[in-house]
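Input record (Table S2, row 391):
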Amino acid sequence: MEAFSIYIHYPFCLKRCPYCGFASSVDDRKLAERYRRALQQELVYRAKEPRWYNKSLQSIYFGGGTPSLMPNEYIARLISQIMQSFNCLPELEITLEVNPETRDANQFAFLRTAGVNRLSIGAQSFQPDELEFLGRIHSVEAVYETVQMARQAGFDNLSLDLIYGISGQTVESFNASIQKALDLRIEHISTYTLSIDEETHFAQEINAGRMPKPDGDLMADQYAALIEIMSNADFEHYELTNYARPGFRSRHNSAYWTHQHYLGLGCSAHSFDGEKRFWNARYIKKYIRNIGNSVKYSKANTDDYCANYRDGLAEGEEFLTPEMHQIEEFYLGLRTSTGVDLDSMADYINIPELNRLLEAGFIEILDRRLYAVEAHWLMLDEIILRLINTS
Ligand code: SF4
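Output record (iron/sulfur cluster complex):
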């Protein structure tokens, strides 16, 4: 049976970080209640779609926003609703993102009992000045306490997020943050370069000349140091931004990179059923409105319930042609340490560029598989653009 994953987006945060480009909003009790009701309704509807019937659920991921702000009972109810609605694999991975500021020993113990077996902790840095620059509301101590509480609650699979390319950060200060994460015996680390999305406060500051742009050379040096430290610590660099101890790769994220199917619930969430990608409205109120319209519509059209309500629910969709499918697999596969099958991609590869990139050491071919060389993963977008034959 084919496997699939479920992503649940909770867009509320205690405070909006100035660099944040995610669909998130400052917590608003009434709106959050309406949102949670809409989310449950969407789950009921989606579970009736035949496209998920003959598939096994391998992972659930609560992301955001700050999903650790959801009431405990609500999270437990969603998990149990999902388990009753879909065929679940016994080794179901259930991850919840946690902002260290919301740490709560009782919540962690409750979540563990409710089936959550992996926490992804938004540490971002172990340097107080960097956290302040990022506008994070939590302290370094809060990260330590979060890890300790999680361990006490029985979590043996923890992931930490770290950011580099922060203004004022150095190679040394980033190395120190990585080392502190390693000292905590974390199972998984995700590292992100500070990207500046339009419409963020940071973008405005940079455009107004009040803040420097992230320094590409510094990021390249930090990346080089990062891959060396993680390799010495016996972490597998299994995807562009992700490192895991053996046996602790994120099953959920791996599903995206191997082009498996997924159902996204909540505002801005995307779904993919193997043929079609479809997505929900980005903005919270629009999403709630779309769900409300779908409820009304489905009540009035019970005969054609599943076929029709979606028109009001999804904000957009695209069908993937076989060519788009292949190119996406290529793009996603090159982000990983498993690379891509060269023969299945033969029609789409620009051979002269392939040879040039091979000669320059940016890519390599082993046993008919094509890999991007780890030292150059930061340049993946450019490598892929050059490799793909668009003619
Ligand atoms: S906590 Fe995360 S999702 Fe929320 S505003 Fe900050 S970066 Fe964005």
